[in-house]
Amino acid sequence: MPQKATFEDLDILQTVKVIPADYFPAKFPMHWHTQVEMIYVSLEADQDATLSVNVNQDIYTLHKGDILFIWPGELHEILPNTRNSFYGIQFSPSLINNRPEFSGKYNLFCHEHLLSFQENKDTAQELLGIFDEITKQNASSDAYKGVEMLIGIYQFLIAFSRYIEVHAQSMLVSSKLLNTETIQKIHGACSYITKNCTNALTLDSVSNFAGFSPYYFSRTFKQVTGFAFTEYLSIQRIRHAQQLLSDTALSITEIAFQSGFKSIPTFNRAFKQFEGYSPSEFKELYSNQ
Protein backbone atom coordinates (compact mmCIF):
# COMPACT_ATOMS: atom_id res chain seq x y z
CA MET A 1 0.00 0.00 0.00
CA PRO A 2 1.17 3.58 -0.63
CA GLN A 3 1.99 5.92 2.23
CA LYS A 4 -1.18 6.83 4.10
CA ALA A 5 -2.38 10.10 2.72
CA THR A 6 -5.57 11.97 1.94
CA PHE A 7 -6.83 12.27 -1.62
CA GLU A 8 -7.76 15.90 -2.24
CA ASP A 9 -10.80 15.97 -4.50
CA LEU A 10 -10.29 19.01 -6.69
CA ASP A 11 -13.18 19.98 -8.91
CA ILE A 12 -12.03 18.62 -12.28
CA LEU A 13 -14.68 20.72 -14.00
CA GLN A 14 -12.93 23.82 -12.70
CA THR A 15 -9.92 23.77 -15.00
CA VAL A 16 -7.95 26.41 -13.07
CA LYS A 17 -8.14 26.95 -9.31
CA VAL A 18 -6.41 29.73 -7.36
CA ILE A 19 -5.54 29.65 -3.66
CA PRO A 20 -5.03 33.32 -2.70
CA ALA A 21 -2.77 34.36 0.17
CA ASP A 22 -5.71 34.93 2.55
CA TYR A 23 -6.83 31.32 2.10
CA PHE A 24 -3.43 29.64 1.88
CA PRO A 25 -3.31 27.01 4.65
CA ALA A 26 -1.12 27.54 7.70
CA LYS A 27 -0.43 23.81 7.32
CA PHE A 28 -1.94 20.92 5.36
CA PRO A 29 -1.43 17.18 5.96
CA MET A 30 0.09 14.72 3.52
CA HIS A 31 -2.20 14.37 0.50
CA TRP A 32 -2.22 13.96 -3.26
CA HIS A 33 -4.41 14.90 -6.21
CA THR A 34 -4.57 14.55 -9.96
CA GLN A 35 -3.96 18.24 -10.69
CA VAL A 36 -0.75 20.11 -11.46
CA GLU A 37 -0.02 22.58 -8.66
CA MET A 38 2.27 25.60 -8.42
CA ILE A 39 3.01 27.14 -5.04
CA TYR A 40 4.91 30.40 -4.93
CA VAL A 41 6.09 33.13 -2.58
CA SER A 42 5.09 36.56 -3.85
CA LEU A 43 7.73 39.19 -4.54
CA GLU A 44 5.69 41.35 -2.14
CA ALA A 45 6.40 38.96 0.73
CA ASP A 46 8.62 39.93 3.66
CA GLN A 47 12.30 39.49 2.93
CA ASP A 48 12.61 36.69 5.48
CA ALA A 49 9.43 34.85 4.40
CA THR A 50 9.92 31.10 4.00
CA LEU A 51 7.61 28.19 3.23
CA SER A 52 8.56 24.52 3.55
CA VAL A 53 6.76 21.78 1.63
CA ASN A 54 7.35 18.03 1.84
CA VAL A 55 7.11 16.46 -1.64
CA ASN A 56 7.73 12.72 -1.87
CA GLN A 57 9.71 12.92 1.39
CA ASP A 58 11.97 15.70 0.06
CA ILE A 59 11.71 19.02 1.92
CA TYR A 60 11.70 22.12 -0.30
CA THR A 61 12.10 25.51 1.37
CA LEU A 62 10.79 28.44 -0.65
CA HIS A 63 12.00 32.00 -0.25
CA LYS A 64 10.76 35.26 -1.74
CA GLY A 65 10.09 34.79 -5.48
CA ASP A 66 10.59 31.00 -5.47
CA ILE A 67 8.16 28.64 -7.25
CA LEU A 68 7.44 25.00 -6.40
CA PHE A 69 5.91 22.59 -8.93
CA ILE A 70 3.95 19.58 -7.69
CA TRP A 71 2.94 17.03 -10.30
CA PRO A 72 -0.14 14.75 -10.37
CA GLY A 73 -0.02 11.87 -7.92
CA GLU A 74 2.89 13.25 -5.86
CA LEU A 75 2.46 13.00 -2.09
CA HIS A 76 2.97 16.40 -0.51
CA GLU A 77 2.48 18.22 2.76
CA ILE A 78 2.40 21.94 3.59
CA LEU A 79 4.49 22.33 6.73
CA PRO A 80 3.50 24.91 9.42
CA ASN A 81 3.98 28.45 8.15
CA THR A 82 2.99 32.06 8.86
CA ARG A 83 0.88 32.45 5.68
CA ASN A 84 3.08 35.29 4.45
CA SER A 85 2.13 36.10 0.83
CA PHE A 86 2.00 32.46 -0.26
CA TYR A 87 -0.18 31.49 -3.22
CA GLY A 88 -1.23 28.33 -5.02
CA ILE A 89 -2.53 27.65 -8.53
CA GLN A 90 -3.87 24.27 -9.66
CA PHE A 91 -4.91 23.13 -13.11
CA SER A 92 -5.92 19.98 -14.94
CA PRO A 93 -3.06 18.01 -16.57
CA SER A 94 -5.36 17.65 -19.58
CA LEU A 95 -4.17 21.14 -20.55
CA ILE A 96 -0.74 19.55 -21.07
CA ASN A 97 -1.82 16.16 -22.37
CA ASN A 98 -4.18 17.58 -25.00
CA ARG A 99 -1.56 19.78 -26.63
CA PRO A 100 1.30 18.06 -28.54
CA GLU A 101 3.45 21.17 -28.02
CA PHE A 102 3.53 20.37 -24.28
CA SER A 103 2.69 16.68 -23.91
CA GLY A 104 6.03 15.50 -25.30
CA LYS A 105 7.83 17.52 -22.62
CA TYR A 106 5.71 16.24 -19.71
CA ASN A 107 8.47 13.98 -18.38
CA LEU A 108 10.95 16.86 -18.55
CA PHE A 109 8.44 19.01 -16.67
CA CYS A 110 8.14 16.42 -13.91
CA HIS A 111 11.88 16.56 -13.21
CA GLU A 112 11.44 20.19 -12.12
CA HIS A 113 10.26 21.00 -8.62
CA LEU A 114 11.88 24.10 -7.15
CA LEU A 115 12.57 27.10 -9.37
CA SER A 116 14.80 29.45 -7.41
CA PHE A 117 14.29 33.17 -7.96
CA GLN A 118 17.94 33.88 -7.17
CA GLU A 119 19.24 31.30 -9.64
CA ASN A 120 16.69 31.87 -12.45
CA LYS A 121 15.59 35.46 -11.96
CA ASP A 122 14.40 36.20 -15.52
CA THR A 123 12.31 33.03 -15.82
CA ALA A 124 10.93 33.35 -12.28
CA GLN A 125 9.90 36.97 -12.86
CA GLU A 126 8.13 36.03 -16.09
CA LEU A 127 6.23 33.16 -14.45
CA LEU A 128 5.37 35.19 -11.34
CA GLY A 129 3.94 37.92 -13.55
CA ILE A 130 1.71 35.36 -15.28
CA PHE A 131 0.65 33.87 -11.92
CA ASP A 132 -0.18 37.31 -10.51
CA GLU A 133 -2.39 38.02 -13.53
CA ILE A 134 -4.20 34.69 -13.10
CA THR A 135 -4.77 35.52 -9.41
CA LYS A 136 -6.15 38.96 -10.30
CA GLN A 137 -8.51 37.47 -12.87
CA ASN A 138 -9.72 34.95 -10.29
CA ALA A 139 -10.75 37.79 -7.96
CA SER A 140 -12.49 39.79 -10.69
CA SER A 141 -16.16 39.76 -11.66
CA ASP A 142 -15.38 39.62 -15.37
CA ALA A 143 -17.72 37.23 -17.15
CA TYR A 144 -14.75 35.93 -19.15
CA LYS A 145 -12.35 35.48 -16.25
CA GLY A 146 -12.35 31.69 -16.64
CA VAL A 147 -11.13 32.06 -20.21
CA GLU A 148 -8.55 34.65 -19.17
CA MET A 149 -7.23 32.31 -16.46
CA LEU A 150 -7.03 29.48 -18.99
CA ILE A 151 -5.06 31.72 -21.34
CA GLY A 152 -2.77 32.48 -18.41
CA ILE A 153 -2.06 28.79 -17.86
CA TYR A 154 -1.15 28.38 -21.53
CA GLN A 155 1.13 31.43 -21.27
CA PHE A 156 2.80 29.74 -18.30
CA LEU A 157 3.17 26.45 -20.20
CA ILE A 158 4.76 28.23 -23.17
CA ALA A 159 7.24 30.09 -20.95
CA PHE A 160 7.98 27.00 -18.86
CA SER A 161 8.47 24.86 -21.99
CA ARG A 162 10.97 27.34 -23.37
CA TYR A 163 12.85 27.35 -20.07
CA ILE A 164 12.93 23.54 -20.03
CA GLU A 165 14.06 23.36 -23.66
CA VAL A 166 16.92 25.81 -23.15
CA HIS A 167 17.93 24.23 -19.84
CA ALA A 168 17.90 20.66 -21.18
CA GLN A 169 19.46 21.48 -24.54
CA SER A 170 22.24 23.61 -23.07
CA MET A 171 23.32 20.74 -20.83
CA LEU A 172 23.40 18.25 -23.73
CA VAL A 173 24.95 20.60 -26.29
CA SER A 174 27.56 21.97 -23.89
CA SER A 175 28.62 18.42 -23.10
CA LYS A 176 28.93 17.86 -26.88
CA LEU A 177 26.71 14.82 -26.66
CA LEU A 178 24.08 15.96 -29.16
CA ASN A 179 23.27 18.82 -31.49
CA THR A 180 20.14 20.96 -31.33
CA GLU A 181 18.50 19.38 -34.39
CA THR A 182 18.78 15.88 -32.91
CA ILE A 183 17.33 17.04 -29.58
CA GLN A 184 14.39 18.66 -31.36
CA LYS A 185 13.72 15.44 -33.28
CA ILE A 186 13.65 13.50 -30.01
CA HIS A 187 11.20 16.02 -28.55
CA GLY A 188 9.07 15.52 -31.65
CA ALA A 189 9.17 11.78 -31.06
CA CYS A 190 8.07 12.34 -27.45
CA SER A 191 5.03 14.28 -28.65
CA TYR A 192 4.27 11.52 -31.17
CA ILE A 193 4.47 8.85 -28.45
CA THR A 194 2.22 10.80 -26.09
CA LYS A 195 -0.38 11.44 -28.77
CA ASN A 196 -0.39 7.80 -29.95
CA CYS A 197 0.45 5.92 -26.74
CA THR A 198 -2.77 3.89 -26.80
CA ASN A 199 -1.76 2.42 -30.17
CA ALA A 200 0.64 -0.47 -30.80
CA LEU A 201 3.82 1.60 -30.94
CA THR A 202 7.18 -0.11 -31.39
CA LEU A 203 10.78 1.04 -31.21
CA ASP A 204 11.08 0.49 -34.97
CA SER A 205 8.00 2.56 -35.83
CA VAL A 206 8.90 5.50 -33.61
CA SER A 207 12.57 5.54 -34.59
CA ASN A 208 11.46 5.54 -38.23
CA PHE A 209 9.17 8.50 -37.47
CA ALA A 210 12.14 10.38 -35.97
CA GLY A 211 14.38 9.46 -38.91
CA PHE A 212 16.94 7.45 -36.93
CA SER A 213 18.01 3.83 -36.79
CA PRO A 214 16.47 1.93 -33.84
CA TYR A 215 19.87 1.61 -32.14
CA TYR A 216 20.77 5.31 -32.44
CA PHE A 217 17.24 6.40 -31.51
CA SER A 218 17.18 4.19 -28.41
CA ARG A 219 20.51 5.50 -27.15
CA THR A 220 19.75 9.15 -27.98
CA PHE A 221 16.22 9.00 -26.54
CA LYS A 222 17.67 7.89 -23.20
CA GLN A 223 20.19 10.75 -23.23
CA VAL A 224 17.55 13.41 -23.90
CA THR A 225 14.65 12.18 -21.76
CA GLY A 226 16.36 10.14 -19.07
CA PHE A 227 14.05 7.23 -19.91
CA ALA A 228 14.33 4.18 -22.09
CA PHE A 229 11.80 4.13 -24.94
CA THR A 230 9.71 1.39 -23.28
CA GLU A 231 9.71 3.25 -19.95
CA TYR A 232 8.55 6.47 -21.57
CA LEU A 233 5.79 4.69 -23.48
CA SER A 234 4.59 2.96 -20.29
CA ILE A 235 4.52 6.28 -18.41
CA GLN A 236 2.39 7.92 -21.11
CA ARG A 237 -0.01 4.96 -21.03
CA ILE A 238 -0.19 5.17 -17.24
CA ARG A 239 -1.02 8.89 -17.41
CA HIS A 240 -3.77 8.08 -19.89
CA ALA A 241 -5.02 5.36 -17.52
CA GLN A 242 -5.06 7.78 -14.57
CA GLN A 243 -7.48 9.99 -16.46
CA LEU A 244 -9.73 6.99 -17.19
CA LEU A 245 -9.53 5.70 -13.61
CA SER A 246 -11.47 8.76 -12.47
CA ASP A 247 -14.41 7.43 -14.52
CA THR A 248 -15.93 4.78 -12.25
CA ALA A 249 -18.03 3.47 -15.14
CA LEU A 250 -14.93 1.82 -16.59
CA SER A 251 -13.42 -1.33 -15.12
CA ILE A 252 -9.68 -1.66 -14.57
CA THR A 253 -9.56 -4.28 -17.34
CA GLU A 254 -11.22 -1.89 -19.80
CA ILE A 255 -8.89 0.91 -18.75
CA ALA A 256 -5.80 -1.26 -19.17
CA PHE A 257 -6.65 -2.22 -22.75
CA GLN A 258 -7.90 1.25 -23.69
CA SER A 259 -4.57 2.66 -22.46
CA GLY A 260 -2.53 0.40 -24.72
CA PHE A 261 -1.52 -2.39 -22.34
CA LYS A 262 -1.77 -5.96 -23.61
CA SER A 263 -2.41 -7.66 -20.28
CA ILE A 264 -3.69 -6.86 -16.79
CA PRO A 265 -0.54 -8.12 -15.00
CA THR A 266 1.64 -5.88 -17.18
CA PHE A 267 -0.63 -2.89 -16.49
CA ASN A 268 -0.68 -3.52 -12.72
CA ARG A 269 3.08 -4.01 -12.55
CA ALA A 270 3.88 -0.88 -14.57
CA PHE A 271 1.38 1.27 -12.66
CA LYS A 272 2.79 0.15 -9.31
CA GLN A 273 6.37 0.65 -10.49
CA PHE A 274 5.93 4.23 -11.67
CA GLU A 275 3.24 5.49 -9.28
CA GLY A 276 3.96 3.55 -6.09
CA TYR A 277 0.39 2.24 -5.78
CA SER A 278 -1.82 -0.07 -7.80
CA PRO A 279 -4.59 0.94 -10.23
CA SER A 280 -7.22 -0.51 -7.87
CA GLU A 281 -5.85 1.58 -4.96
CA PHE A 282 -5.92 4.70 -7.12
CA LYS A 283 -9.47 3.96 -8.28
CA GLU A 284 -10.67 3.26 -4.73
CA LEU A 285 -9.19 6.46 -3.35
CA TYR A 286 -10.74 8.48 -6.15
CA SER A 287 -14.19 6.84 -6.02
CA ASN A 288 -14.46 7.21 -2.24
CA GLN A 289 -14.36 10.98 -2.41
TrEMBL record:
Superkingdom, taxonomy of origin: Bacteria
InterPro entries reported in the protein's UniProt record: AraC-bd, Homeodomain-like_sf, HTH-like, HTH_AraC, HTH_AraC-typ_CS, RmlC-like_jellyroll, Tscrpt_reg_AraC-type_HTH
Keyword vocabulary terms for this entry: DNA-binding, Transcription, Transcription regulation
Protein name, as recorded: AraC-type DNA-binding protein
SUPFAM superfamilies: Homeodomain-like, Regulatory protein AraC
All residue ranges annotated as the HTH araC/xylS-type domain in the record: 187-285
One annotated GO molecular function: sequence-specific DNA binding
